[in-house]
TrEMBL record:
Protein name: EAL domain-containing protein
Entire protein: shown range: 481 to 760 of 774
Domain EAL residues, every copy: 23-278
Length: 280
């Protein structure tokens, strides 16, 4: 059999070409989706481990494309970051979710919950993020201390004095700050050392492994004790079974979130949860 380098190249080229075309069309579909406002938001409750009360809801973006079907945010958010669309997207989520929380606060006057929104670190490089929040608070009457931003490390949080200044200024205005996916980034520890953090969210991968690997259990126990020492809240993400919940509660993890308690739901379905805001 003859095999030339050129033949090998030709063999692989169509597949690569195909993939490049798909990536291009996803990009242009995403641009259209942003222009047309084709996104929705689901909300997932966060519970206090001990009181079992809902203490917050996390807004999670959803995109259902007419032909592709649902496109997961893990797929399109990194593309949006590269395309420079993430500012527009995160801002839309933030404004819509704040409007929704204001509705729920009217509907359930006794409700005391916070709104968590995910923010790409790319959007935290200047003060315009805070200017926008202050404008929203001003016109809507929204209390900025009801907001927590979850900083996702999709693109590495640069060693940035501007980001540090912004976070400090936001915290002065009452906005809470959470470090998302804690333990998966390069420098999670240096972030809690440098930035004014209120909450760490332990990545789901640790929760998934903790009952299978004693080492993971040790890591979790120590992260939770570190959080307590620093007076931070700690949310365990992706809790899927009772055994995980029991172990986390025993370790003193202050908050939990996951399919065991509630999946992310569209606003009307979440209202039913908020009518009786405790762990099922
Ligand atoms: P994340 O912020 O770490 O969000 C948690 C993800 O885990 C969500 O996936 C949620 O649906 C899922 N999840 C929650 N509980 C469980 C569980 O018990 N088991 C399992 N297997 N999964 C669980 P989702 O909604 O697909 O979002 C993926 C990621 O996309 C988010 O991870 C976040 O980093 C990003 N993202 C979502 N919405 C936004 C947004 O509005 N802006 C930005 N910048 N990023 C967003
Ligand atoms: Ca998050
Ligand atoms: Ca997370
Ligand atoms: Ca994540």
């Amino acid at each position: 059999a003859k095999r030339s380098a050129a033949g090998g190249f030709l063999f692989f080229e169509p597949a690569m070409h195909e993939r490049a075309l798909q990536a291009l069309s996803l990009q242009s579909d995403l641009r259209d989706a942003v222009r047309q406002g084709d996104f929705t938001i689901c909300y997932q409750p966060i519970f206090d481990t001990h009181t079992r009360a809902v203490t917050g809801v996390e807004a999670l973006i959803r995109w259902t494309h007419v032909e592709r079907g649902p496109v997961p945010p893990d797929v399109f958010i990194p593309i949006a970051e590269r395309m420079g669309l993430i500012g527009t997207i995160d801002r839309w989520v933030r404004e819509s979710a704040i409007a929704q929380l204001l509705v729920w606060q009217q509907q359930f006057p006794a409700l005391k919950i916070r709104l968590n929104v995910n923010v790409s670190a790319l959007n935290l490089r200047d003060q315009s993020f805070l200017t926008n929040l202050e404008a929203i608070a001003q016109t809507s009457g929204f209390d900025l201390s009801d907001l927590q931003i979850e900083i996702t490390e999709g693109l590495l949080l640069a060693d940035s004095p501007a980001t540090e200044r912004l976070l400090v200024a936001m915290r002065k205005r009452g906005v809470k700050i959470a470090l998302d996916d804690f333990g998966t980034g390069f420098s999670s520890l240096s972030y809690i050392d440098r930035y004014p953090i209120d909450t760490i969210k332990i990545d789901r991968t640790f929760v998934t492994r903790m009952l299978l690997q004693t080492r993971t259990m040790s890591i979790l126990r120590n992260v939770i004790s570190l959080a307590k020492d620093l007076d931070l809240d700690v949310v365990a993400e992706g809790v899927e079974n009772e055994a995980q919940y029991e172990a986390l509660a025993a370790m003193g993890c202050s908050h939990v979130q996951g399919y065991l308690f509630c999946k992310p739901l569209p606003a009307p379905a979440l209202a039913a949860v908020l009518a009786c805001p405790v762990m099922p």
